[in-house]
Amino acid sequence: MSTVSVKTDRPSALAEFWYYFSRNKGAVIGLAIFVFVLLLAIFASVVAPHNPDAAYGSDMQRLPPVWAAGGNSSFLLGTDAIGRDLLSRLIYGTRYSLFIGLVVASVSAAAGVLIGLVAGYVRGYTDTIIMRVMDIILAVPSLLLALVLVAILGAGLTNAMIAIAITYQPHFVRLTRASVMAERDKEYVVASRVAGAGSLRLMFKTILPNCLGPLIVQTTLSFSSAILDAAALGFLGQGAQPPTAEWGTMLADSREFFLSNPWLVTFPGLCILITVLAINLMGDGLRDAFDPKLKRS
């Protein structure tokens, strides 16, 4: 007895995701830039032409880029105020910026999703208390709240990441809660409950996987915002401390030379701008790929 195999033309989940993601050309460009920055961060010790913390003497201080008058071919983007290679410091700065974004986005997403899952599923007084606390946190501007928390915890990169993660957490809580409330009374959840599934299984195995689309988009946007806020804290002297090659700290160290040596401020600022813009463009592409309404349109 022979069996007949039926072939379907349904694309795989990955192929479908890439189809909708790649329709957004800006998202593809953002992905390419992000991959480039990621590779720079991974291979910084190989790509960087000099030690980022090595000063090359008073005669090498504030050299202009190689294409400007007085430039040196050994230092393509020039040197900073104490004679360190600017290009090498920018390349190593990708490590700090991506590390900050990854840690902050992961911590705030994990804590926010857990709290929002409990609030949306349990409801009642638990939901009310959690959401009023989140409203209080959201009532304070995020950068101001981060500054207050860093002032309490002490200046430094670790404390800055903790402070930024706390300020981003309410966004994940509210988004998760709304998604859970939309899913908890649907037929597949009721069927699982009737079949004897416990609360933890319903929350983490049944409901949460169907809420991941908007959460992934929010995580991507938080990643870019964390880089921006960490740079702002570094610029204000409350984030990474010298001689760390972090873009915000580099801006703070060079602000007094803004008029006389503008490249010292321009290049770190461009790195922040391009990286944050690339990640935001990726976030738009992820939204297009995960939003079923956009797919139908």
From TrEMBL:
Naturally occurring in which organism (per UniProt): Rhizobium multihospitium
GO CC terms in record: plasma membrane
Record key words, sorted: Cell membrane, Membrane, Peptide transport, Protein transport, Transmembrane, Transmembrane helix, Transport
Family the entry assigns: Belongs to the binding-protein-dependent transport system permease family.
Start and end residues of each ABC transmembrane type-1 domain: 98-283
Protein name: Dipeptide transport system permease protein
Matches recorded under InterPro entries: BP-dependent_transpt_permease, MetI-like, MetI-like_sf, OppC_N
Subcellular location(s) of the protein: Cell membrane
PANTHER family per the UniProt record, alphabetical: D,D-DIPEPTIDE TRANSPORT SYSTEM PERMEASE PROTEIN DDPC-RELATED, OLIGOPEPTIDE TRANSPORT SYSTEM PERMEASE PROTEIN APPC
MF-aspect GO terms: dipeptide transmembrane transporter activity
A GO BP annotation: protein transport
Domain of life, per lineage: Bacteria
Keyword Lyase set for record: no
Membrane topology: Multi-pass membrane protein
SUPFAM superfamilies per UniProt: MetI-like
Chain segments annotated as transmembrane: 27-48, 96-122, 143-168, 216-237, 257-279
Taxonomic lineage: Bacteria, Pseudomonadati, Pseudomonadota, Alphaproteobacteria, Hyphomicrobiales
Pfam families: BPD_transp_1 (PF00528), OppC_N (PF12911)
